[in-house]
Amino acid sequence: MSFNPLKIGKYTIPKPIVQGGMGLGISWDQLAGTVSQNGGLGVISAVGTGYYNDKEFSKKLVADRPLSEVNFYSKDGFTAIIDNARKICGAKPLAANILYAINDYGRVVTDACEAGIDIIITGAGLPTNMPEFTEGYPDVALVPIVSSAKALKIICKRWKKRYDRVPDAVIVEGPKSGGHQGFTYEQCKMEENQLENIVSPVVEEAALWGDIPVIAAGGVWDKNDIEDMMSRGARAVQMGTRFIGTFECDAHANFKKVLLEAKKEDIQLMSSPVGYPAQGVRTSLTSLVEKREGPAIKCISNCVSPCNRGEEAKVVGFCIADRLSDAYEGKLETGLFFSGTNGYKLDKIISVEELLTKLIEGE
């Protein structure tokens, strides 16, 4: 089976593979730029850009961490990442992933537009007002992430009524993805919520609003999986975890090591201050958190609104901004290492070019 290019708005992606946006610092300029350069869609994560280049762009630090959302989501850091990715991929389409649950969501979306991003992807909540922040940038394509046809219908209805537009594409994400889920713990285990069962209803809903391309995500691993999703009506797939196993991935060598050494049973759902369950690798940190012996929670960066300035962090036992940044910096004892359920299948590090070839042509 040969694959057709993916069209999102005015952009054409030759290989219908979207690299998942992985924060903090896992998919920044090197990974996203290289994926786009090689014909996929590279996606820069907007999370924690104040940490970029050894916190060069964070104007104020407390305990060596970016203070407040203005520094954690540094406009200058984000712009530098986008500029450096552009040096790798040139004029080829480049996307940013901006979580709806973050503090300063609207400002960060505008920052991305001003920095010249082509496509914005948003999950972690229903982005019913997403187009509001891209006014004046008609060429920027907008792609929400949903976990059901119902969610897509709500978004399309609101966007059509308020802004007279619909999404340029939609990502439907099942509960095998890494990081935060669009389901409760119980829903993640239900058969009807598995990716293979939610793709077709979303494809049907997307067709009612025009020809909105559907991108399937969460547990897609190889060419067989891609073909399976295409047979269900998806036009492309999004893959995150598999790209961690590349030389160009911006993650620390220790992050890659954690995944290379992970066993199937090590990858589990855990509570998160974001209010959704998150999927990652069990490490010494998860054991400490369960015993309430984890690192102190100080809420320096004020990263996500559902956390309520550290209140939810205290409930679950860890600060997500601090723990993800520790993983980015390779701190094995205190880092939180997100992974999709198939992360244990990573067995070696290869180049982005080789990975994309494997995915398109088969192993």
Helix content class: 25-40%
Q: What structural class should be given to the helix and strand makeup? A: alpha/beta
Q: What portion of residues belong to β-strands? A: 5-15%
Q: Using DSSP, what is the number of strands?
A: 15
Supply the CATH class of the largest domain.
Alpha Beta
CATH superfamily of the largest domain, please? Aldolase class I
Give the N-terminus to C-terminus distance in angstroms: 14 Å
Largest sheet: 8 strands, parallel
Uncertain residue segments: none
**Element-level helix/strand string:** EEEHEHEEHHEHEEHEEHHEHEHHEEHHHH
How many separate structural domains? Answer: 2
Mean pLDDT: 95
Describe this structure in words.
With 363 residues, this protein is α/β, with parallel strands linked by helices. The chain folds into two domains: 6-252 and 346-361, Aldolase class I (TIM Barrel, Alpha-Beta Barrel); 255-328, no CATH class. Helices cover 36% and strands 15% of the residues. The protein is built from 15 helices and 15 strands. It has helices spanning 29-37, 52-55, 68-72, 75-89, 105-114, 149-163, 185-189, 195-208, 223-231, 241-244, 253-261, 284-290, 311-316, 320-328, 352-361; strands at residues 6-8, 11-13, 17-19, 42-45, 61-62, 65-66, 94-97, 119-122, 141-146, 170-173, 179-180, 214-217, 236-239, 267-270, 278-281. The strands form four sheets. It has an eight-stranded parallel beta sheet with strand order 3-13-12-10-9-8-7-4. Strands 11-15-14 form a three-stranded antiparallel beta sheet, with no helix packed on it. The longest helix is centred in the N-terminal third of the chain and has 15 residues, at 75-89. The model has no long low-confidence stretch (mean pLDDT 95).
